[in-house]
Design brief:
16 helices; globular; mainly alpha; 69% helix
Amino acid sequence: QFIFTGIPVYYHSVYVLLSPLGYLDRNTAIIIFQSMNIVFMVIFYYLYSKSIENDNHRFHVMVAFLLLLSSTSFRVAMGNGQLSIFVLSFYSFFLFLSSKYVYSSHLLASVGIAKYSFAPNFLLHILLSRKYLSLVYIFIISLVCMLIFEYISNSNFFSSMFSPIEIWTKGDTFLNRGVTPDGPLAPGNGDLMSIMKVLEFKSLYYLTIPIILSILLHLFYFKYEGRDILYDFGIIGLFSLMFYQHLFYDYVLLLPLLLLSFKFNKISFFLSYMIICYAWFSPTIFSFFGIGATLINIIFQFFLFIALFTIVIYNLSTKSYDSS
């Protein structure tokens, strides 16, 4: 009842998928949802580990997953019932299974785009990959889920269709909270949209500039050969975190880049490792020392993301990336 009578914050497919939990009492629904998140992470670990033949690399993968499980991002995502892990799992399943299970994977993708900060880069990537049929299927599934949502909630079709986008552009933003450039920010922000909002750019600019830069970097990225699923996986998540508003529990999307960094040269591996660990654990460290989030914090995090993208592109261009 809460999901279907509230304003949709996410795209409708995820509400339809999770609506059966509404028939359960709250505690049971929480246990099932959290169990689903854990099971999805185990499946993702299995799918990725199965593709690895090097035992040493397999050990590093286990370390990466253990780091994720102990991170602030993962714990808060689980504790708050956020969809970050859910989305990470579904779009990873799509990337791993799309070549073998073409049609069923589109259903996974339609759930994977539920998070508005992730959807633009994911859909753009599919478009640039020329998987036009995938886009058609995702659109059809999303439309069907939206119609189901409208029927159950008895809400206005067009209003509900655009409400997730409206929430994204005008929702509980920093400026709505009366935040000034010198005031407190939400922990974990590190994206261009948040920076531009705090600096009081007009909405036309903080909406269009991140989108334009995201498209340009995607086009730049597609110039390189030797890309594989994990590489695509990491870039989609990184661009989502770089350009669109999020909070620190969304940093679970950095897991693919941590897995990718094990194949880099030693210096690149160390730098990537430090940047990702900083994103995963810094909110807890700042909180422990009583350091609030500031504009400097999010600008610093944004430039760390730029550095991470540079490291990944450097390793790809110098062929030090292990394509096997």
